[in-house]
Amino acid sequence: QHQGDYDQAKVLYRRALRIIQKHYGEDHVAMSPIMNNLANAFLYQGDYDQAKGLYRRAIDIKQKHYGEDHVEVASTFNNLANVLQHQGDHVDVAKVLYQRAVRSKQKHYGEDHVH
After folding, report:
1. What pLDDT is recorded for position 86?
2. Contacts of 115 (CB under 8 A, 6+ apart)
3. Which of 22, 50, 93, 109 is buried most, with the most CB atoms less than 10 Å from its CB?
4. d(CA 70, CA 48)
């Protein structure tokens, strides 16, 4: 069980996003880890739709910055797959995303690396 004040965390993550967006723009790669963390807070509270939207936006930003198969993108694919699996009705899509994340990580780290 995750513990913490997720409502307060969401306030702080949103504030950080506004600051980064103001200074660097809404597509800056610095937005993606904060979006990912904000999405985690929504996930832990069971708000899967909000989490999905933020993970997808973070994926878009990371893909523009790093490329399609980068390990940074893979980690967020994994997170999006977690949400889809929790929802239960998107298990096939979650499986594809998990497999894509594993392939990217193996490509980056090697097949024998423990991730």
Report:
1. 86
2. 105, 109
3. 50
4. 25
